[in-house]
Design a protein that fits this description.
The chain is α+β, with helices and mostly antiparallel strands and 172 residues long. A 7-stranded mixed beta sheet has the order 1-2-3-4-5-7-6, with helices on both faces. Strand 4, helix 3 and strand 5 form a beta-alpha-beta unit. Helix 1 crosses helix 2. The longest helix is centred in the first third of the chain and has 14 residues.
Length: 172
């Protein structure tokens, strides 16, 4: 896999990224079953999500940008796994890379930075749900030590068909 890491910077996301992050996510909403959202968001609708990821703590947002242009190339985040208090030491993680920026190692760089940032947050487990099929995402998660724990069969309905979600976990 070619790497252009020298051309990519990763930093915590901020409100200045809102429009670009919304546009990136909306691509996946409109074009893929990677997310089970079915209606694109406006930046105003997506703002609470962005604000739920502060610079520190267990719920982070890391943004990859092109070092020259500043263009957002992707993001990785950790979010609450479930709302109940006993789940507080677990997070759900995700990565989205711009469709024209794939196969450059950006997802790997984003996850490495995210997990480094989470190392001292007292977390126990990270979980990732991967809509199937998605071999590239499965490979990325396995490279970071995630292991397969089970599949929810036909759990999502999008584009007129049913989709499975394979769940993976990683000890932190």
């Amino acid at each position: 896999m070619p790497s252009d890491h020298a051309e990519v910077q990763v930093r915590p996301g901020d409100e200045g990224d809102l429009v670009a992050l919304t546009d990136l996510y909306n691509h996946y909403v409109r074009e893929t079953a990677v997310t089970f959202d079915t209606t694109p968001f406006t930046p105003a609708e997506r703002r609470p999500w962005l604000l739920s990821h502060p610079v520190d703590g267990p719920h982070r947002l890391m943004v990859a940008t092109d070092a020259g242009s500043g263009r957002v190339l992707g993001y990785a985040s950790s979010s609450p796994f479930r709302a109940k208090p006993a789940y507080a030491t677990s997070v759900e993680t995700t990565v989205y890379v711009a469709p024209d920026a794939g196969r450059r190692g950006i997802g790997t760089l984003l996850y490495r930075t995210l997990f480094d940032a989470l190392a001292d947050e007292g977390l126990h487990r990270a979980y990732a749900g991967i809509a199937q099929p998605n071999a590239a995402s499965t490979r990325l998660h396995e490279r970071f030590g995630f292991r397969y724990v089970g599949t929810y069969r036909e759990v999502g309905h999008k584009f007129g068909r049913w989709w499975d979600v394979a769940w993976h976990e990683k000890e932190l």
